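Weekly puzzle thread! Below is a chain. First person to post its structure in token form gets bragging rights.
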Amino acid sequence: MSAVRRHKLFQRYLAISRVSQIISESTCTPFSKFYATLSEEQKKKIADGPDLGDFIHGDTKPESGNIRRKKGERLRLPKWLKTDVAMGKDYHKLKENLRDLNLHTVCEEAKCPNIGECWGGAKGTATATIMVLGDTCTRGCRFCSVKTARNPPPPDPMEPVNTAKAITSWGLDYVVLTSVDRDDLPDGGAAHLAETVREIKKNKSDILVECLTPDFRGDMTCVAKVAESGLDVYAHNVETVEDLQWLVRDPRANYKQSLNVLKFVKSNKQNLVTKTSVMLGLGETDDQIMRVMEDLRKIDVDCVTLGQYMQPTKRHLKVKEYVHPDKFKYWEEVGNKLGFAYTASGPLVRSSYKAGEFYLKNLLKSRRKKEVSSTAEVST
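Winning reply:
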């Protein structure tokens, strides 16, 4: 620890000691009066001083740079990843609405850290990422907390209608649909997902729909069913760098198969926005991350999100490294230079990310205006 850091901590200690002394001398006086006796300089030192967590953990070292796990050690969550507990009127209303309609969300199943912000509606309309085809997956990826089974219950035939009903009642203008992997179904659930999109568009034609899909075992006939359903953004996640696929994902998934899905969609539906997501903190190197981003641009993927991997339970893969926000900012700049239409990169960024939805909404509207203008010019 540097001399400057030691001096600052000592000054804070003196300020806190002064408060303790005043309290011990005047136990019958309200604390507000004790605080009022302090000078502005002392109040500032207290405000800038260590918080309760510093005393509990005995940690006074400032957090800078990536935090890597040593052998046998469990990493403590850094300050930049701590979020508020989910609560509020909108949060509880949305949760009740989902249960009443027997709908599932990836927000809950994947234990997303942004659930309080998105469901609480703190920055506008409350949103949720609806997960169709049930809440049980046929695959067992080591990063995911969604339930797994070889033969999950059959899909609810009313799910497409109920999903459209819920989304219409929320008054959304952008919605994200995702699904579990259903390798037990002949088409992997592609028809069910496509029907959900059509029901939503039937109820509200101007709503923008993003689908975060499985790889359908690499069956491009299934991919085409979803791509041609009327959706606006086709998302499929590569999840991690190529060299860590075997460790992170189910053996039935792989890097080339995921790239082929995204490549097929863009080749057959050029105006469709394609999107993918990468988790960091699993032990990947900078060179490996760069290679993924370059591979994605080669197949003309429009949008990429990079976020911190968070271990959902003790049974799942451990976090190897907490990547510092400055590093995420660096990857955002790299993505912009490579030519992605949108790059979202941050510790709490997720594939279905509210700020990203706002940007994509504007991107899609802008592209539609250009298409209309081009059509008008050709006709004249």
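Puzzle host: Confirmed. Bonus trivia for everyone else. The first helix runs from residue 3 to 25.
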